[in-house]
Amino acid sequence: MRYDLIVLGAGAAGLMAAAQLPRKRILVVEHNVRPAAKIEISGGGRCNITNRHLSVGEYLGDPDFIRTVLARFDNDDLLRFLNRHGLEPVVRKKDQFFCQESSRELVDLFLKASEHADFSYETNIVSAGKSEDGFVVETSRGRFFGRHLLVATGGLSYASIGATGIGYDIAESFGHTVVPPRPALVGLTLQPEEGWMKSLSGLSMPVEISVGRRRFSDEMLFAHRGISGPAVLDASLFWNRGKITIDFLPGVKLRTLLKHPKRTAVSQIPLPRRFVQAFFDTQNLPNVPYAAMTEKQKQRLSYLKSYAFAPAGTFGYTKAEVTKGGVATDMIDPETMQSRLVEGLFFAGEVVDVTGRLGGYNFQWAFSSAVVAAKSI
Ligand SMILES: Cc1cc2nc3c(=O)[nH]c(=O)nc-3n(C[C@H](O)[C@H](O)[C@H](O)COP(=O)(O)OP(=O)(O)OC[C@H]3O[C@@H](n4cnc5c(N)ncnc54)[C@H](O)[C@@H]3O)c2cc1C
Question: What is the CATH number of the domain that holds 92?
């Protein structure tokens, strides 16, 4: 049989696209036994679907491209779509919308909304090419033919639940450029000089991290392998190489804080004692009042407000929530998500070179780009 549309990948983007096209003959190809493995495990099992505040600034990628796509299907449109299908997401943390009880609610919604489509599970996509009047997809279960092709195979993060780079291969085989993929929303590993932070494994505290001109205020977790937690994950999206700066005392002025002339600096710093001790040790600072410190010591103490260092790398794809990079957007039309090189070829979701911050922005992107593609198919 020849389909109107073959969707590659039964993840967030693929399912949303199928759900939008009830009158089309659709085949969704997926190598897992079930759809939407990432929706299931996301947001601590409750899936952070979207965010009350949606703006281009929450994304890494071409702002004009992203703006055009989001304007066609934004967070309000998504919530209306979910409500229409009986799902009422709730705001839990910092304006983030989650499923009420379990991510399963969202997966079930999509399965119901795409009942008209054929699903080929346990089917590994091998390649895709042009046929006479559309596309041919080579899989472990043979060839499928479709008039349109939507590549929604996601990124490289979490191979353990199905991620592969097949979408990039297919895009390149059609002449598209792929911006080199990298792990993102991921913990950062440390150089040996930053070993003192590893000794604080398990400790979490609010910080402000600067990467270039961007600042991220949230919790940071000291981990065995390096640093993690929401502030670090967000920062990792914009970090490639080079230094980041951590303010361990956001919103506090050191001089005001340490004004007591007789009390030691250590006793006046409102941070976990373990941290303060490790910091003083690594900076070779004496346990004396601030006023009794030499100018050099005061300078070293000021690193509490601006600790600059170059992370060694990231925790990698096994821990990364997303993959940045992907199919370059210059050869995709943001009004349709159609390739500018091959008619009938569409892209949606994480496979594209658009990546969001923590907070529901990646599912919103997957859904927005899928709806834009579906509307023009
Ligand atoms: C642990 C974790 C938690 C997350 N939490 C959140 C969150 O709360 N909020 C948020 O916005 N984002 C979250 N994300 C990111 C979000 O899950 C992704 O950005 C989103 O799923 C991307 O959707 P997609 O449809 O593009 O790709 P995916 O959902 O990854 O779907 C791609 C599909 O293609 C299939 N596939 C891949 N290769 C092949 C092949 N060769 N043959 C056949 N099938 C193939 C995969 O099995 C998969 O089903 C999280 C990610 C992880 C890993």
Answer: 3.50.50.60
